[in-house]
Amino acid sequence: MFMTDALRRSLRCALSCPARSLAGLAGRWLVLGVETSCDDTGAAVVDEEGTVLGESLHSQKDVHLKTGGIIPVVAQKLHQENIARVVQDALDRSGVVPGDLSAVATTVKPGLALSLRVGLEYSLSFVHKHKKSFIPVHHMEAHALTVRMIQPVPFPFLVLLVSGGHGLLAMARGVDDFLLLGRALDEAPGDTLDKVARRLSLQSQPEWAVCSGGQALECAARAGDRSRFCFTLPMAQRYDCHLSFAGLRNQVTRAIEMKEEEEGVRPGEVLSCAGDIAAATQHAVAAHLANRTHRAILFSKTSGLLPQNGATLVVSGGVASNQYIRHTLKMVTDATGLQLICPPPELCTDNGVMIAWNGIERLREEKGVLTHGQHVVYEPKAPFGTDITQQVKEAAIKLPQLKLDTRP
User: Fold this and answer.
1) What confidence tens digit (pLDDT) does each residue in 94-142 have?
2) Rounded to two decimals, what is the model's pTM?
3) CA-to-CA separations, 321 to 14, 45, 198, 327, 376, in angstroms, rounded
4) Among 146, 135, 158, 113, which residue's Cα sits nearest to residue 351?
5) Helical spans, DSSP H, in 246-344
6) CB distance 259 to 271 below 8 Å
7) 326, 319 in Cβ contact below 8 A?
8) How far is C-alpha 64 from the chain's CA centre?
9) pLDDT 10s digits, 74-98
């Protein structure tokens, strides 16, 4: 199921709540989360009940939109310029002073090396100054567990993490216990959507100029007819749960080039059929994700990793905000008897809240909690969980037919 309107309103209220008194919070765990894995500088203070006491976020989106992509040295400079202000703003909004904190949690892997470095160096300086515990966080783990801040999702559950930098399917068995079922072999789904949007020059249109590529493509697709273009789904004959989007993007690029030649479109101009190509691309991405997730569900049930009844699929990451993709995945969970849960859109993208909550989860179980003097390094590339992708492949599960053509 999706988040209810009441839950959304409650979360937005918590995120916008002004500084408050700490009366009544005595004895509770309070964690400051710091996120700088890519192009957003985020910080938040969260308590053990999942209440967001204060949050601040500096987005670099407008800067990177102008350059057509993220330039690591530019992202690093912007993180350096904003991190102290963002952290202080989160603390001010929460009414919490550093001495009240139980720990600081910070993303240390995976991500852009230069961006991770800024967050880690700032956090280590902070915990050393204030003599606080430090909790290094795996970015994917934080995305996977965010939903448990909103509602009590028990382990085990299946998780699909899809963003501009990542794509994976995993079984969550505990706070730090994950089984990797499949991963993106080439480019991430969000990267594919962004690149197609740029190739279609969608962001040259005033109505989409301030949108990310994926957002612009989703908007354009709403008025498009996906049946005008038929793209072959990736890896249809491979019986695993890996994801692949580079070949699909090449198909889309060739279709765009052919139409540009037919219409005599010059660079920067938008094809008359741009909405149709956007819709077809979005459907192909959604269908590929749905197929791989369907196999992951069947494998997990037959292997005893998921209960036969009452199991849950959590979908998180920036691409999880795409409503068409959500509805396509809902068809899979309806057909297989799973509950689909997606965090609200504001928690699907990178933010300090999910990092702080990951700190709370680890603090509860005393896992990965370090003293302020222990050595920590950032890891731009890092594995996630225990890799059982070969077992999935060897199971060779064929999928039953499932119609995936209903629009939200």
Assistant:
1) 999 999 999 999 999 999 999 999 999 999 999 999 999 999 999 999 9
2) 0.88
3) 20, 23, 19, 11, 33
4) 146
5) 246-263, 274-302, 323-336
6) yes
7) no
8) 18
9) 999 999 999 999 999 999 999 999 9
Asked if 49 and 138 count as a contact pair (C-beta separation under 8 A), the reply is: no
Residue type, 278: A
Q: How far apart are CA 314 and CA 344, in angstroms?
A: 12
156: CB partners within 8 A, 6+ apart: 171, 172, 173, 305, 306
Could you tell me which of 113, 164, 173 has the C-alpha nearest to residue 141?
Answer: 173
In angstroms, rounded to a whole number, what is the distance separating the alpha carbons of residues 164 and 213? 10
Determine which helix (DSSP H) or strand (DSSP E) holds 109, and give its type and residue range.
strand 103-109
Instruction: Please state whether 235 falls in left (phi above 0), alpha (psi between -120 and 50) or beta.
Output: left
Strand pairing report for 177-183 and 133-138: unpaired
Smallest CA-to-CA distance from 185 within 255, 239, 235 is with 235
Sheet holding 30-35, edge to edge: 52-59, 40-47, 30-35, 103-109, 133-138
Instruction: For residue 156, say if its preceding peptide bond is cis, omega within 30 degrees of 0.
Output: yes
Nearest to 202, CA basis, from 218, 190, 186: 218
Contact 41, 50 (CB under 8 A): no
- The secondary structure of residue 207, as a DSSP letter, is G
The identity of residue 75, as a single letter, is A
Instruction: Tell me how far apart the alpha carbons of residues 81 and 100 are, in angstroms, rounded to a whole number.
Output: 26
CA nearest to 359, candidates 50, 69, 26: 50
Let me know: does 312 contact 153? Beta carbons within 8 Å: yes
